[in-house]
Amino acid sequence: MGRHVLVWDAPNVDMTLATIIEGKPTAKDRPDLAVLGDWLVDHADPDDPVEACVFINVAPHVAGVLRGWVLWLLEEGFRVFAKPKRGDSDVDQDMLDPLAVRQADGDLDAVYVGSNDARAFQEPLQELAARGVAVTVLGFGEYAGGMATDPQLRFVDLEAIDGLFDEPLPRLTLESLPADGRWFEPRGRLGGHDSALRTREIEA
């Protein structure tokens, strides 16, 4: 019997999602963490202790808005670590600290890290894997850097978790194309650059 622990980097996932959809994510765009909780429990044996932790960096102007979400997370069985957002503060080390504590306890069997921040997490997760902990990274393959291909880590693309998102995300990924191919729709206006060039030539 071994402990399974999820640490979820809410600021990083939200920032990456904003890049993918080219805008501020709304509730309908964000992953359903209740689905993620079910997925996590399904990947553990019935007697394994399972712990899920969400980490947030709270700017003053969103504190009131986030309160309802935090209460919902607590009702869903998640622990929540909230830290004031000051300057360029982040929650990276705060996410690693409980993993170190659980590993020192001696019963840590599996770790799941929801983040695309390879610079912060790849090396510490490699160290955990070298100690015999099964490490899974949950992220977006095109943004997760070396964590998506690291042989010491298991990588699961968030969109591969059934039901986590209501609709497919508008991602430009060429690594997992369907056998019959896929169309990518334009995001800009055709001929826009030529029009600007012609305008500059007329003005000259």
What features would you describe in this structure?
It is a single chain. The protein has 204 residues and is of the alpha/beta class. The protein has a single domain (3-173), classed as Rossmann fold (3-Layer(aba) Sandwich), CATH 3.40.50.1010. The protein contains 6 helices and 6 strands, in the order E-H-H-E-H-E-H-E-H-E-E-H. Strands 3-2-1-4-5-6 form a 6-stranded parallel sheet, sandwiched between helices. Helix 5 links the parallel strand 4 (108-114) and strand 5 (134-139). Helix 4 packs parallel to helix 5.
Protein topology:
Blueprint: E1 3-9, H1 10-21, H2 33-42, E2 50-58, H3 63-75, E3 79-84, H4 92-105, E4 108-114, H5 118-130, E5 134-139, E6 154-157, H6 192-203
Parallel strand pairs: 1-2, 1-4, 2-3, 4-5, 5-6
Helix pairs in contact: 4-5
